[in-house]
Amino acid sequence: MERITARDGASIVLHSTGTGPGVVVVHGGGVTIDVYRRLATALADRFTVHLYNRRGRGDAPARSEPYTFEQDIDDLAVVLEHTGSGNVIGHSSGGFIALQAALRLPIHRLALYDAAVSIDGGFPAEWLDAAQEALRVGDTARSFAITAAGINPQMAAAKLPLGVRLVIIRAFLRTPIGRMMGDLLPMTLDESALIRANDGPASRWEGVTAKVLLTCGADGPPYYVDLNEALARTLPRARTLVIPRSGHDAVNRAHPRLVDPLATFFGAPVTPERTGHP
Fold first, then answer.
1. Sign of the alpha-carbon torsion through 127, 119, 33, 187
2. What pLDDT band is residue 274 in, cutting at 50, 70 and 90?
3. Percent of the chain, pLDDT > 90?
């Protein structure tokens, strides 16, 4: 563990493990790096994996308000510069941050899993206003239940009556990970609102020159398949991969069916981008 200095003078705590080329992980919205330690361990025999908590979580400093993704991109820039890494994994809303960062930072290879990018309305957001209102009046369980069903429409629990889902969610919020996700729910909703506000055509990402692996789970939210295909048609150096028997948390579970393709992707020789110049 080491501390590095962000552009605003705050300290970013870097948790690094393993040996080999560096890979930086940009984690999702409602969690901390703790749920990514299994991934870091699985890759540590081939790569040096760098984890850091995004602002407002765990050992990270507070985030700026009003919140935008700019501070997250600035922090990623500092981590990449410090580690010398050009390899990035982005998960969920961390995938949006990493993809946005790839438009301006020296990222050579970018692996995204369930990147929360909205293309032509493809990321569901009709649930968001109700979830924000429930949280505003202090009903965290109701807000969480609405959010979980909105983001994960494929799950059987999402089809249950709200009253039943509330019973399940209240029990979940009493578990350690449930308490963490409940505490971070305001950030999850803030990030979802920004993703909705940044909806647009896939062409906005065509300036990304990194080699990109767009992954999602066969058992996860189905809209990620379409979003990844839309990105792959636009990004000049991208391909898609659907991971079998995997949901939105596959990055956290770190099964070989995901870890091995990631290792192959980051371990391949770097080929220079063709610029058309002699």
1. negative
2. very low
3. 94
- Residue type (1 letter), 9: G
Amino acid at 245: R
Q: What is the pLDDT of residue 79?
A: 98
Q: Which residues share a beta bridge with 2?
A: 14
Q: Name every residue whose Cβ is closer than 8 Å to that of residue 241 and which is 6 or more positions away in sequence.
A: 213, 214, 215, 261
pLDDT of residue 269: 79
What letter does residue 198 receive in the DSSP assignment?
T
Q: Give dist(CA 147, CA 225) in Å, integer.
A: 20
Place of tokens 């729910």: 185
Where are the CATH 3.40.50.1820 domain residues in the chain? Answer: 2-121+201-267
Tokens standing for 58? 């765990």
Scanning the chain, the segments in alpha helix (DSSP H) are: 37-43, 70-83, 93-101, 128-136, 140-151, 162-172, 176-183, 185-197, 223-234, 250-253, 256-267
Strand 22-26 and strand 87-91: the pairing is parallel
CB distance 92 to 147 below 8 Å: no
Residue 111, classed as helix, strand or coil, is strand
**Which among 159, 89, 96 is positioned nearest to 123, based on CA atoms?**
96
| Residue 37 in tokens | 């330690």
Rounded-to-integer distance, Cα 165 and Cα 19, Å: 44
SS3 64: coil
Which residue's structure tokens are 């896939």?
Answer: 202
d(CA 266, CA 260): 10
Q: Per CATH, is 2-121+201-267 categorized as 3.30.1330.40?
A: no
Query: For strand 2-5 and strand 11-18, is the pairing parallel, antiparallel, or unpaired?
Result: antiparallel
CA angle, residues 90, 96, 97, in degrees to nearest 5: 75
pLDDT surpasses 70 at 275: no
